[in-house]
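Item description
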Amino acid sequence: MCMTMMSDISQDLLEEILSRVPITYLRAVKSTCKGWKDLLNDPSFSKKYGGKRDNEFLAIMTSGSRASLMSVNLHGPRDNKDLEDPFIKQIGELNQDQIFKVFHCDGLLLCITNEDNTRLVVWNPYLAQTRCIQPIDKFYIYDWYCLGYDKDKNHKILVVYSPMFGRIEYEIYSFLSKSWIVLSFPTDWQISRDECLSLKGNTYFIAYKKMEVEEVGFQEFLLCFDFTNERFGPLLPLPFQCYNQTSLVLSTVQEEQLAVLCKRCDAYETKIWITTKIEPNAVSWSYFLKFDFKVDISGGSFFVDVEEKVAVLFCINREKEKGINNKTYMIGEDGYYKEVDLGESNWCPSMCSYVPSCVQV
């Protein structure tokens, strides 16, 4: 009987086999032999590995102090009763301790810890590399922390200090120089929500005009921080009249477009729009999907699949007497609906899409 050795198989087959290895086992696989390590560190392979499959994508879920790698399949059978193969599965636990928040950009995870002394750790799970970022003074857990890059692909971290501590300051850290600079410029707006995300190297926030702060129901806008110019752009319109009584969530679509979900707190109707143009100084929107949804989406997350015309929502269910029950809902046209119970937790699940890369930290 002839036994086939791994060295005898074709390169294409080897890549296909290694592309199916769960990301939590990559470190062990890389240590097996130099050839595998070189292949796994090749940028072209990481692109193939990172969700070029037609039927699924990867996401990072944080809940409490835990971070998990999830596989989300939006192309499974549309059978409400078929829960034997749920559309979302946990692949593995990510072994960074005490994570409060995760911000994803370009395959890197900016981890904000929830220890007494808040720390920033930049982590590439694919390469098993980390870098601890030292502050100018001190990090605070409720400030905004964002990761991006400029036109030359130099990665940077933006810190926006929360006004709850009586100050509004901006600091930016450069991976290239390994140093901080303090930014100072006048603004006529204030960031209004925890919501922010990265798209094409820039970070997008929700903000409102300061002059309206005393008014009941101030209007909100989209706001971009440009990491190339190291400046905020103008307030950009959302595709609806959005006020602070509205649940509003941002998401990305295949790392190319921005999506926004809007749900009034006093109504079930939920709407989603997707950008047709998105730049630091300009935006245009296209209507995507409308559905009725009874669950509170505040603090939650969502993804959309344009081809399947479905949305996946991650949020809390407060019907249980103890703790919080986290659930995932897949909702589409013509009343399509499916849900998966993620278990009890005292924290609302936060999800961000994840595409592995070979960016060094």
